[in-house]
């Protein structure tokens, strides 16, 4: 009985990327914890940039300053 | 001091259905746990079908295949 | 695909009360939203009294003052 | 490693108010718990008035009756 | 800025399994969404069997009946 | 109608620190959003170090390596 919630900033996540996350995490949980995928629910919630704060600043402000969340 | 969060796929839940859920759950908690309804908050969150994964698939894909969540 | 989270202060909720909440809410959702109970998951989380704040005070402090959450 | 989620009814919260909440809570956590702000994430989620229930009623109904959440 | 919450029944998940979930999901998000792992937080919450309801029954009751969540 | 959830690693947060967080956040929300404190609920959830992942590693492992979350 796993339930997974993914919160991520709304910055152009595509339908295909969401499907990759859902398939990948369901598969990982099934493999690592031996859980039936029919009992695994995953919810993705995209958050507006004004609504996510990091280090005391809105992400919308960080992005205006050119600070991204991409891998280095 | 109960707080309840209901997450459900966004598939045409009406205002009246939401009111039924809110009234019914508040009443149930009040009856079973003897809690003051003035301390009971309930939040309903509708989730887009692309954002809910079940059994490794997006619900939007399941619905396209004709698989519903209705009672049998 | 409903998922429900119930957060309530840890004040002696019994196994039977939890079962009543789970059965009652699952039944309500099934009736109001026509959802298959096999797709309905409910999670109860009990919160220590020091960890729940209401009106700016810990519930543990409110209880020491004789303020309860019971129905009037 | 703190993560904070703020759920509030959608009633005209401005970008500036969100920034005040994010800065204020990050600062409070940093001061009280001695946490690095670079490890503190805050998410604000606004909830439609039909989707928040209080005392068994939708907040949208309460507002129609003239009942607000403002300080007395 | 992703945050992930995993809720799973408390049934002997080991420290190694948790590490596999954390490493696997962080890697998946980094690959699929191109997110810096230093901005990815994952929280695992184990839920007692009396506190998880499925299909209207406590999981503790389902387990007593021999119904498991294992892959078929 | 605000509800706030604070998740933080379980590393010796005291009852007094929790009270400071509850009072401070309730006051901040009351000031910034003009919300009645009697409608503001705050829940603190401490997470075991094995159960919080950051940058792909359990916090328990990071602490063993001498990496803390303290302000620099």
TrEMBL record, chains A, B, C, D, E, F:
Family: Belongs to the 4-oxalocrotonate tautomerase family.
Xref: PANTHER family: 2-HYDROXYMUCONATE TAUTOMERASE (PTHR35530:SF1), TAUTOMERASE-RELATED (PTHR35530)
One Pfam family in the UniProt entry: Tautomerase
GO function terms (MF aspect): isomerase activity
Protein name, UniProt field: Tautomerase
InterPro entries: 4-OT, 4-OT-like_dom, Tautomerase/MIF_sf
EC number: 5.3.2.-
Domain 4-oxalocrotonate tautomerase-like, residue spans: 2-60
Catalytic residues, chain numbering: 2 (proton acceptor)
Keywords from the UniProt entry: Isomerase
NCBIfam families (alphabetical): taut
Taxonomic superkingdom: Bacteria
Organism: Flavobacterium reichenbachii
Entry annotated with the keyword Isomerase: yes
